[in-house]
Structure to design on (410 residues):
């Protein structure tokens, strides 16, 4: 067989698995297979072979020498708000001066601020503004991304956001999963009851008709949407094939975990405020606890007890929460570092959380998340580094030498 691409002399081929389980949990999260002195071969955009360098084939159209370098599967970022109209650095300054997230939201900032800006621009303009962020995350090693709506808050603007997310996939080579998050905040010109009816009666059917969303999400939080309202909206989404994932327990013990377990959500995301009750509930469910370290870092919130969750036998996923208000970065290497530095995950646990487990909760583990024959060749080639642990240790530095998306050098 003539390969399209052969990467050889690899110092360490990371996350090599003959097959992948549904996810990793508990002690298995510390197990990260690394093949020393290896090669990996690609054809038609897929990983077709790998092994010890001494058995490396020679017949390839393109050859990359990775001496002294590691090769990793690309990050899978399972929680972002990548499509937005404008940054919110003015709120950043207010936060520095002591204003809380809730205070900024109550004064017309926050999500409503982003909605006002997004409603004022066209779909094409929103696409152009969002596209550069897509390229930004590709350069930092993300090959799969989930993108939420939620800054539209009207039927046409929620649809506009999801259309842009679909266009990003076609334009970039990223694999994109889309999530409808109409229940992100309540517009000022209506009541919550009327807005929920709009979500259920108008938004969900219109989005389902265009097949724009894989998932449905709700911001289950004090002052936003209650447990009961979250369940009501998620059940409406489920009826048209949108599987739930929940913004849970970010600012308070809001009941988001309870709602997520009740509706059989794929994931509950944030978890800055979580206790024994929620951990026990998760242990008896198939819901993926997803940690967003960028948001905790930026807002000065408690970091979720990720290590405790793992010790209790749970799986943990790590995503960026890239958004203009509470995590203005989609840099997954930085999230990888934060997970190790602030939550005491080992490099192996953190990398599994950002590849295998995020791919699992996006239902893409058959195609992404590991170096496995038949999976899509989305790869990161590092610069020359002394060890795998060096990558999260050297936080903030650019340790990526090359990106491979669908078998092609980016």
């Amino acid at each position: 067989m003539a390969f399209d691409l052969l990467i050889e002399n690899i110092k360490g081929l990371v996350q090599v698995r003959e097959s992948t389980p549904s996810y990793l949990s508990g002690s298995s999260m510390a197990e990260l297979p690394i093949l020393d002195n290896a090669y990996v071969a690609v054809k038609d955009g897929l990983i077709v072979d790998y092994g010890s360098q001494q058995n490396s084939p020679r017949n390839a159209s393109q050859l990359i020498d990775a001496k002294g370098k590691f090769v990793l599967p690309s990050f899978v970022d399972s929680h972002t708000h990548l499509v937005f109209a404008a940054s919110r650095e003015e709120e950043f300054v207010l936060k520095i001066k002591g204003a809380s997230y809730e205070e900024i939201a109550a004064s017309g900032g926050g999500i409503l601020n982003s909605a006002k800006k997004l409603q004022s621009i066209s779909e094409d303009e929103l696409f152009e503004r969002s596209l550069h962020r897509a390229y930004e995350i590709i350069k930092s090693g993300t090959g799969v991304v989930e993108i939420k709506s939620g800054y539209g808050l009207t039927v046409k603007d929620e649809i506009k956001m999801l259309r842009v997310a679909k266009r990003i996939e076609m334009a970039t080579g990223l694999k994109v999963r889309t999530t409808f998050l109409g229940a992100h905040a309540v517009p000022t010109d209506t009541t919550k009851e009327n807005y929920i009816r709009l979500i259920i009666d108008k938004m969900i059917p219109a989005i389902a008709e265009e097949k724009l969303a894989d998932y449905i999400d709700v911001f289950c939080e004090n002052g936003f949407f209650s447990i009961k309202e979250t369940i009501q909206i998620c059940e409406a989404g489920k009826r048209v094939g949108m599987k739930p994932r929940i913004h849970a327990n970010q600012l308070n013990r809001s009941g988001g975990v309870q709602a997520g377990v009740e509706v059989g959500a794929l994931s509950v995301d944030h978890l800055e405020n979580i206790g024994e009750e929620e951990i026990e509930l998760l242990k008896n469910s198939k819901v993926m606890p997803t940690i967003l370290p960028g948001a905790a870092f930026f807002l000065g919130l408690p970091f979720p007890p990720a290590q405790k969750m793992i010790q209790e036998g749970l799986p943990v996923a790590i995503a960026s929460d890239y958004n203009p208000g509470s995590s203005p970065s989609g840099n997954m290497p930085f999230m990888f570092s934060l997970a190790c530095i602030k939550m005491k995950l080992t490099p192996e646990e953190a990398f599994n959380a950002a590849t295998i487990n995020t791919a699992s909760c996006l239902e893409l583990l058959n195609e992404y998340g590991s170096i496995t024959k038949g999976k899509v060749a989305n790869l990161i080639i590092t610069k020359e580094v002394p060890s795998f642990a060096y990558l999260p240790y050297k936080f903030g530095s650019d340790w990526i030498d090359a990106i491979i998306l669908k078998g092609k050098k980016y």
About this structure: Residues 3-73+370-409 form a domain with the Urease, subunit C; domain 1 fold (CATH 2.30.40.10). The chain has a mean pLDDT of 96. The first helix runs from residue 89 to 96.
